[in-house]
Structure of Septum formation initiator:
Amino acid sequence: MRRGLRTGLIAGASALALLLSFGSGTAVGFMADLGRSSSQAGSTQIQDPGSFTPGQGFGRGTTTLPGQGSGSGSGSGSGTQSGTGRGTSVTSPEATTAQKAGVVTIDSALTYENAAGAGTGIILSSDGTILTNNHVVSGATSIRVTVESTGKAYVGKVVGTDATNDVAVLKLEGASGLTPAKLDTDGAQVGEAVTGVGNAGGTGTLTAATGQVTALGQTITTQSEGTAAGETLTDLIQTDAPIVSGDSGGPLVDAEGEVVGIDTAASSGSEQIAG
Protein backbone atom coordinates (compact mmCIF):
# COMPACT_ATOMS: atom_id res chain seq x y z
CA MET A 1 0.00 0.00 0.00
CA ARG A 2 1.33 3.45 -0.84
CA ARG A 3 0.91 5.94 1.97
CA GLY A 4 0.45 8.91 -0.36
CA LEU A 5 -2.42 7.28 -2.20
CA ARG A 6 -4.05 6.12 1.02
CA THR A 7 -3.88 9.63 2.42
CA GLY A 8 -5.55 10.93 -0.71
CA LEU A 9 -8.34 8.40 -0.32
CA ILE A 10 -8.98 9.36 3.28
CA ALA A 11 -9.04 13.02 2.33
CA GLY A 12 -11.71 12.17 -0.18
CA ALA A 13 -10.25 14.41 -2.85
CA SER A 14 -10.58 11.85 -5.60
CA ALA A 15 -12.22 8.66 -4.33
CA LEU A 16 -15.74 9.09 -5.68
CA ALA A 17 -18.27 7.41 -7.90
CA LEU A 18 -21.74 8.18 -9.24
CA LEU A 19 -24.05 6.06 -11.34
CA LEU A 20 -26.68 6.82 -13.92
CA SER A 21 -28.91 4.35 -15.72
CA PHE A 22 -30.29 5.36 -19.11
CA GLY A 23 -33.56 4.30 -20.65
CA SER A 24 -32.04 1.14 -22.08
CA GLY A 25 -31.33 -0.05 -18.54
CA THR A 26 -27.57 0.22 -18.91
CA ALA A 27 -26.04 1.66 -15.76
CA VAL A 28 -23.40 4.31 -16.25
CA GLY A 29 -21.03 4.84 -13.35
CA PHE A 30 -18.94 7.88 -12.74
CA MET A 31 -15.84 6.82 -10.86
CA ALA A 32 -13.17 9.20 -9.61
CA ASP A 33 -9.64 8.49 -10.72
CA LEU A 34 -7.59 7.46 -7.68
CA GLY A 35 -4.22 7.95 -9.32
CA ARG A 36 -4.26 11.16 -11.36
CA SER A 37 -6.20 14.27 -12.31
CA SER A 38 -8.16 14.69 -15.54
CA SER A 39 -9.72 17.70 -17.20
CA GLN A 40 -13.49 18.06 -17.09
CA ALA A 41 -15.12 16.41 -20.08
CA GLY A 42 -18.78 17.22 -19.72
CA SER A 43 -21.49 17.52 -17.12
CA THR A 44 -24.94 16.33 -16.23
CA GLN A 45 -27.37 16.76 -13.37
CA ILE A 46 -29.35 14.19 -11.47
CA GLN A 47 -31.91 14.48 -8.72
CA ASP A 48 -31.10 13.39 -5.18
CA PRO A 49 -34.35 12.61 -3.36
CA GLY A 50 -32.59 12.52 -0.01
CA SER A 51 -30.89 9.96 2.19
CA PHE A 52 -34.04 8.84 3.95
CA THR A 53 -36.40 8.21 1.04
CA PRO A 54 -37.03 4.55 0.18
CA GLY A 55 -37.73 3.56 -3.41
CA GLN A 56 -35.63 6.28 -5.01
CA GLY A 57 -32.01 6.87 -5.90
CA PHE A 58 -29.29 8.36 -3.73
CA GLY A 59 -30.41 6.52 -0.63
CA ARG A 60 -28.10 5.39 2.13
CA GLY A 61 -26.71 2.57 0.02
CA THR A 62 -30.03 0.90 0.69
CA THR A 63 -32.52 2.18 3.24
CA THR A 64 -35.41 0.33 4.86
CA LEU A 65 -38.15 2.22 6.69
CA PRO A 66 -40.76 0.57 8.92
CA GLY A 67 -44.06 -0.01 7.16
CA GLN A 68 -42.81 0.84 3.68
CA GLY A 69 -41.94 -1.48 0.81
CA SER A 70 -39.05 -1.60 -1.57
CA GLY A 71 -38.92 -1.05 -5.30
CA SER A 72 -38.45 1.78 -7.75
CA GLY A 73 -40.08 5.17 -7.54
CA SER A 74 -40.29 8.29 -9.65
CA GLY A 75 -37.82 11.10 -9.30
CA SER A 76 -38.25 14.67 -10.47
CA GLY A 77 -36.79 15.83 -13.77
CA SER A 78 -36.45 13.66 -16.84
CA GLY A 79 -35.37 10.46 -15.14
CA THR A 80 -36.78 7.78 -12.89
CA GLN A 81 -34.67 7.11 -9.83
CA SER A 82 -33.66 3.54 -9.10
CA GLY A 83 -34.91 1.92 -5.92
CA THR A 84 -33.02 2.08 -2.66
CA GLY A 85 -35.16 -0.59 -1.04
CA ARG A 86 -33.79 -4.09 -0.66
CA GLY A 87 -33.62 -5.97 -3.93
CA THR A 88 -32.85 -4.92 -7.49
CA SER A 89 -33.82 -5.85 -11.03
CA VAL A 90 -30.16 -6.05 -12.04
CA THR A 91 -28.62 -9.43 -11.28
CA SER A 92 -24.83 -9.80 -11.24
CA PRO A 93 -22.93 -12.97 -10.28
CA GLU A 94 -21.68 -13.44 -6.74
CA ALA A 95 -18.18 -12.08 -6.18
CA THR A 96 -15.33 -14.57 -6.17
CA THR A 97 -13.10 -15.14 -3.15
CA ALA A 98 -10.42 -12.95 -4.73
CA GLN A 99 -12.91 -10.15 -5.40
CA LYS A 100 -14.11 -10.20 -1.78
CA ALA A 101 -10.61 -9.48 -0.45
CA GLY A 102 -10.42 -6.01 1.07
CA VAL A 103 -14.20 -5.45 0.88
CA VAL A 104 -16.73 -5.09 3.72
CA THR A 105 -20.51 -4.87 3.92
CA ILE A 106 -21.99 -2.19 6.15
CA ASP A 107 -25.30 -2.29 8.04
CA SER A 108 -26.44 0.69 10.08
CA ALA A 109 -29.28 1.53 12.42
CA LEU A 110 -30.63 5.01 11.75
CA THR A 111 -32.04 7.71 13.98
CA TYR A 112 -35.72 6.80 13.58
CA GLU A 113 -37.49 3.71 14.84
CA ASN A 114 -36.61 0.43 13.09
CA ALA A 115 -34.97 2.18 10.12
CA ALA A 116 -31.83 0.59 8.69
CA GLY A 117 -29.28 1.24 5.96
CA ALA A 118 -26.84 -0.93 4.03
CA GLY A 119 -23.82 -0.29 1.85
CA THR A 120 -20.27 -1.37 1.12
CA GLY A 121 -16.75 -0.30 2.10
CA ILE A 122 -13.07 -0.82 1.34
CA ILE A 123 -10.39 -1.89 3.85
CA LEU A 124 -7.49 0.57 3.89
CA SER A 125 -5.41 -0.83 6.77
CA SER A 126 -4.88 -4.11 8.60
CA ASP A 127 -6.13 -2.58 11.86
CA GLY A 128 -9.53 -1.69 10.46
CA THR A 129 -9.54 1.66 8.66
CA ILE A 130 -12.48 1.58 6.23
CA LEU A 131 -13.37 3.91 3.35
CA THR A 132 -17.04 4.25 2.37
CA ASN A 133 -19.56 6.88 1.27
CA ASN A 134 -20.75 9.46 3.75
CA HIS A 135 -24.36 8.77 2.81
CA VAL A 136 -23.94 5.12 3.82
CA VAL A 137 -23.28 6.04 7.46
CA SER A 138 -24.66 9.57 7.89
CA GLY A 139 -27.23 9.68 10.70
CA ALA A 140 -26.43 6.16 11.90
CA THR A 141 -26.80 5.38 15.61
CA SER A 142 -24.84 2.14 15.26
CA ILE A 143 -22.75 0.57 12.49
CA ARG A 144 -22.02 -3.12 11.94
CA VAL A 145 -19.23 -3.94 9.49
CA THR A 146 -18.65 -7.45 8.16
CA VAL A 147 -15.33 -8.41 6.58
CA GLU A 148 -16.52 -10.50 3.66
CA SER A 149 -13.37 -12.60 3.26
CA THR A 150 -13.72 -13.98 6.81
CA GLY A 151 -17.36 -13.36 7.74
CA LYS A 152 -16.29 -11.66 10.98
CA ALA A 153 -18.35 -8.65 12.11
CA TYR A 154 -17.10 -5.57 13.94
CA VAL A 155 -18.54 -2.42 15.45
CA GLY A 156 -17.64 0.52 13.23
CA LYS A 157 -17.10 4.09 14.41
CA VAL A 158 -17.03 7.13 12.11
CA VAL A 159 -13.69 8.92 12.50
CA GLY A 160 -13.87 11.32 9.56
CA THR A 161 -16.30 12.56 6.92
CA ASP A 162 -16.39 14.83 3.89
CA ALA A 163 -20.06 15.35 3.07
CA THR A 164 -19.23 17.53 0.05
CA ASN A 165 -17.36 14.68 -1.63
CA ASP A 166 -19.59 11.99 -0.04
CA VAL A 167 -16.80 10.04 1.63
CA ALA A 168 -16.38 8.78 5.19
CA VAL A 169 -13.71 6.89 7.11
CA LEU A 170 -14.62 4.28 9.73
CA LYS A 171 -12.51 2.53 12.36
CA LEU A 172 -13.35 -1.04 13.37
CA GLU A 173 -13.17 -1.80 17.09
CA GLY A 174 -10.68 -4.53 17.96
CA ALA A 175 -9.70 -5.29 14.37
CA SER A 176 -6.27 -6.63 13.42
CA GLY A 177 -4.72 -8.69 10.68
CA LEU A 178 -7.16 -7.55 8.00
CA THR A 179 -6.25 -7.69 4.32
CA PRO A 180 -6.35 -4.18 2.78
CA ALA A 181 -7.63 -3.60 -0.74
CA LYS A 182 -5.04 -3.10 -3.46
CA LEU A 183 -5.12 0.47 -4.76
CA ASP A 184 -4.34 1.37 -8.36
CA THR A 185 -1.65 3.97 -9.06
CA ASP A 186 -1.61 3.99 -12.86
CA GLY A 187 -5.03 5.50 -13.52
CA ALA A 188 -7.94 4.05 -15.46
CA GLN A 189 -7.98 4.05 -19.25
CA VAL A 190 -10.95 4.28 -21.62
CA GLY A 191 -11.86 0.79 -22.78
CA GLU A 192 -10.30 -0.86 -19.74
CA ALA A 193 -12.25 -3.78 -18.26
CA VAL A 194 -13.52 -3.07 -14.74
CA THR A 195 -15.68 -4.78 -12.11
CA GLY A 196 -17.86 -3.16 -9.45
CA VAL A 197 -17.97 -5.23 -6.25
CA GLY A 198 -20.69 -4.42 -3.75
CA ASN A 199 -23.57 -5.28 -1.45
CA ALA A 200 -26.13 -5.05 -4.27
CA GLY A 201 -29.65 -4.51 -2.95
CA GLY A 202 -28.40 -4.65 0.65
CA THR A 203 -28.68 -8.45 0.69
CA GLY A 204 -25.37 -8.98 2.49
CA THR A 205 -23.95 -10.96 -0.45
CA LEU A 206 -21.25 -9.33 -2.55
CA THR A 207 -21.83 -9.34 -6.29
CA ALA A 208 -19.50 -8.52 -9.18
CA ALA A 209 -20.79 -6.23 -11.96
CA THR A 210 -18.53 -6.17 -15.01
CA GLY A 211 -18.12 -3.48 -17.65
CA GLN A 212 -15.67 -1.08 -19.23
CA VAL A 213 -14.42 2.44 -18.63
CA THR A 214 -16.23 4.55 -21.22
CA ALA A 215 -15.01 8.08 -20.42
CA LEU A 216 -12.71 10.04 -18.11
CA GLY A 217 -12.85 13.47 -16.50
CA GLN A 218 -16.64 13.62 -16.16
CA THR A 219 -18.59 16.11 -14.03
CA ILE A 220 -21.96 15.55 -12.39
CA THR A 221 -24.23 17.55 -10.08
CA THR A 222 -26.47 15.96 -7.48
CA GLN A 223 -29.56 17.80 -6.33
CA SER A 224 -32.07 17.11 -3.58
CA GLU A 225 -35.77 17.37 -4.31
CA GLY A 226 -37.21 20.77 -3.53
CA THR A 227 -33.85 22.54 -3.47
CA ALA A 228 -32.04 24.61 -6.06
CA ALA A 229 -28.53 23.91 -4.78
CA GLY A 230 -26.60 20.72 -5.38
CA GLU A 231 -23.14 19.22 -5.01
CA THR A 232 -20.90 19.18 -8.07
CA LEU A 233 -18.51 16.23 -8.33
CA THR A 234 -15.70 16.46 -10.86
CA ASP A 235 -12.93 14.40 -12.47
CA LEU A 236 -15.02 11.23 -12.57
CA ILE A 237 -14.53 8.01 -14.49
CA GLN A 238 -17.53 6.80 -16.48
CA THR A 239 -18.22 3.05 -16.70
CA ASP A 240 -21.05 0.94 -18.08
CA ALA A 241 -20.78 -1.69 -15.30
CA PRO A 242 -24.35 -2.31 -13.98
CA ILE A 243 -23.75 -1.08 -10.44
CA VAL A 244 -26.89 -0.69 -8.32
CA SER A 245 -28.14 0.60 -4.98
CA GLY A 246 -26.38 -1.03 -2.03
CA ASP A 247 -23.07 -1.01 -3.91
CA SER A 248 -22.40 2.46 -2.46
CA GLY A 249 -18.90 2.63 -1.02
CA GLY A 250 -17.75 -0.51 -2.82
CA PRO A 251 -14.72 -0.72 -5.09
CA LEU A 252 -14.48 -0.52 -8.87
CA VAL A 253 -11.49 -2.72 -9.67
CA ASP A 254 -9.41 -3.26 -12.80
CA ALA A 255 -8.29 -6.56 -14.33
CA GLU A 256 -5.46 -6.78 -11.79
CA GLY A 257 -7.92 -6.47 -8.90
CA GLU A 258 -6.73 -2.96 -7.99
CA VAL A 259 -9.22 -0.31 -6.89
CA VAL A 260 -9.66 2.60 -9.32
CA GLY A 261 -12.73 4.17 -7.66
CA ILE A 262 -15.69 3.69 -5.33
CA ASP A 263 -19.41 3.71 -6.07
CA THR A 264 -21.43 6.59 -4.66
CA ALA A 265 -25.01 6.49 -5.93
CA ALA A 266 -27.34 5.12 -8.59
CA SER A 267 -30.08 6.62 -10.69
CA SER A 268 -32.00 5.58 -13.78
CA GLY A 269 -33.76 7.53 -16.47
CA SER A 270 -33.10 9.51 -19.61
CA GLU A 271 -30.51 11.98 -18.35
CA GLN A 272 -27.77 12.61 -20.90
CA ILE A 273 -24.12 13.54 -20.54
CA ALA A 274 -23.22 16.80 -22.23
CA GLY A 275 -19.83 16.21 -23.90
